[in-house]
Input
Amino acid sequence: MPAKAKWAQLADYLRERIESGELAPGEKLPSTAQLKEEHRVSQTVVRQAILVLQTQGWVEGVHGVGVFVAEQLPNAPDS
Output
């Protein structure tokens, strides 16, 4: 079986950090540059991972400010 794409691996890693509470709702994610360096991937890989997480509702991007953990997570029960 082929290895999982790098963007999918990075998205899984970030999703796990959110689910574990290591990255809390409203908290800013590391910058693209930080993620590139930490995971030794390209900017395209980071952008694709973030895009997938945005589409799934895990994170929200604020233009010119950064990417933040969503206040209401996809699997969180309604209050």
Notes: Helices lie at 6-19, 32-39, 43-56. The chain is about 45% helix and 10% strand.
